[in-house]
Amino acid sequence: MIAPGSRSLRVKFILPALKEATDPHWRPIKYSLFPPLGLATLAAYLSPDDHAVIVDEHVEPLRLDDAPELVVIQVYITNAYRAYKIADHYRNQGAFVCLGGLHVTSLPEEAAAHANVIFLGPGEQTFPSFLKDFRAGRPERVYTSMSGRTLERVPPIRRDLIRCGSYLVPNSIVVTRGCPQHCDFCYKDAFFQGGRGFYTQRVDDALAEIERLPGRHLYFLDDHLLGDRRFGEALFEGMKSMSRVFQGAATVDSILRGDLIERAAEAGLRSIFVGFETLTPDNLRRSNKRQNLGRDYKAVADRLHSLGIMINGSFVFGMDDDGEDVFRRTVDWAIEQGITTATFHIQTPYPGTKLHARMVQEGRMLTRDWNLYDTRHVVYQPTKLRPETLKCGYDWAYQEFYRWGRIARASLHHGTLKHQAKHFFYASGWKKFESVWDFLIRARQLTRVTPLLEGVLSRVTGRKPQQARQTDVQVLPVIQPETTI
Ligand code: B12
Ligand code: SF4
Fold first, then answer.
1. Hey, where are the domains in the chain?
2. Alpha carbon of 193 to ligand 2 centroid (Å)
3. Out of 62, 118, 252, 348, which residue is the most buried by the measure of CB atoms under 10 Å away?
4. Ligand 2 atom with the shortest distance to the CA of 179
5. Thinking of the domain 10-144, which architecture would CATH place it in?
């Protein structure tokens, strides 16, 4: 079972399907967006003569009739049961099974029952140590990432192992790890425990990785792309001449502070995921989301729009101060500010987080069925809402935000026809054309959408946003000829 010496290894990396991806009502496009970058990062530590495959169960069937020596599985909370089943299968076949990722780090004992070895925290230091031990015939049972975390001198991600044509955004990239903030509901503090919680690549390595990616469009999957000002400044300076368009995520305060967001826009930032989370200060205080406290959310939206950056707003429902009005209040606010797309979540206390510890202490956790921890189900007892009301309100918020009339109204917030059209097509394209996405995925033609996406993400000039008028709600924006979709 254990490979001695330096002979080549047969390694299978697996991203098991998340539970909701196996639901008949799932949205295939959501799970065909990004390739499994974590696994491709780990694969880079193999030797050139090792044989590796990466199977992402969201985009291809997983065959179990093979005989790899080493099986490496990434475990998220809602694929945990599936991951354990696959792990048990391969262990019975005599393979050596490694489990790692967010859920393994949260609940190591649970995962250890299904693995030969488990990994806690990021894998850049622990996985190569394990490979060395494995080749020497003496692997340990647990590898924990502690001090010495770095992204310096990491080998280039094995993108050659990714079926790029199966993803809408093959050019996804991460140039930092973690986040400088400490929100109580976030995975971050538990995952990065014992070492640095936020660190970046060297700027020239990040730029070299970007240079290697084909086409124009990029998606930075970093938790907080603007988290380190000096790194951000140098990165965006280097990207200015690259003619890229890109998307990313950042916090409310980082968008208001200094001029980093302008520099990002100049380098090609066209859409950003922003964690507004809640419009209620008490909720922010209780969840230690200090970076949002006292910040003017409207100013955030206006600043981004004036730079031609679309907003994907993230909102959480069910925090302790949320009553029945929270759903309409939040949707109305997002529409009024011209937010392009919204991601709503039911608050979900993930094991390992401070929020989870508090809920357990208060006796409020309702289930430990990890399949339900997808932010679409209520797994704890809210204070001012019944669980059914929270679930219905969440479903209502999604439906309401993406009604045609509401999309049109939010689009009209913007000052120019081009900006309005861009908003309208991006938001409706994302949520209203499910059958087209399904067709493109089945026909393996997702990459054909890239030029369209790049067109929609082309820069619009930022005139002052105008307030949408009630009477305008049914009026759809006129498409200008230069709009490329
Ligand atoms: C891309 C992404 C997705 C993709 C996932 C597809 C994919 N191919 O992985 C999609 C769109 C499907 C998705 C969906 C969701 N996501 Co998501 N997603 C991300 C995101 C932005 C990037 C993931 C990534 O590529 N990271 C970069 C790589 C390099 O890191 P990595 O994958 O973690 O891998 C490293 C380590 O984990 C470790 N490792 C991982 N596996 C293994 C295995 C072994 C053996 C070893 C040694 C090491 C190891 O080593 C790798 C290198 O360091 C992260 C945020 C983030 N920055 O990580 C959120 C994140 C993972 N998502 C999150 C959430 C909440 C969700 C959703 C619930 C949101 C929603 N409501 O829809 C859903 C469902 C997920 C679920 N059910 O658990 C949370 C997870 C919270 C938690 N505690 O689980 C995160 C952390 C965002 C956040 N800041 O809150 N997501
Ligand atoms: S700002 Fe976002 S990524 Fe950072 S700790 Fe808070 S929720 Fe997590």
1. 10-144, 168-429
2. 15
3. 118
4. 4
5. 3-Layer(aba) Sandwich (3.40)
Q: Which of 343, 177, 175, 182 is nearest to 264 (CA)?
A: 175
pTM above 0.90, yes or no: yes
Residue 471 has pLDDT above 80, yes or no: no
Report whether residue 292 contacts ligand 2, using a CB cutoff of 6 Å. Answer: no
Give me ligand 1 centre to Cα 351, in Å.
Answer: 15
> Which ligand 2 atom minimizes the distance to the CA of 185?
7
Ligand 1 neighbour 127 (Cβ under 6 A): yes
DSSP 388-432: HHHHHHHHHHHHHHTSHHHHHHHHTTSSSHHHHHHHHHHHHHHHS
Which residue has its alpha carbon closest to ligand 1 atom 7? 36
CATH architecture of the domain with range 168-429: Alpha-Beta Barrel (3.20)
What's the Rg (C-alpha) of the chain? 23
- List Cβ neighbours of 126 (8 Å cut-off, separation of 6 or more): 100, 119, 120, 143, 144, 145
Nearest-CA residue for atom 86 of ligand 1: 187
- Cβ–ligand 1 contact at 122 (below 6 Å): yes
Contacts of 243 (CB under 8 A, 6+ apart): 216, 268
Instruction: Judge if the beta carbon of residue 224 lies within 6 A of ligand 2.
Output: yes
The residues, ordered by sequence, that sit 6+ positions from 285 with a Cβ below 8 Å of its Cβ are 293
Report the pLDDT value the prediction gives residue 473, as an integer from 0 to 100.
26
| pLDDT tens-digit series, residues 337-356 | 999 999 999 999 999 999 99
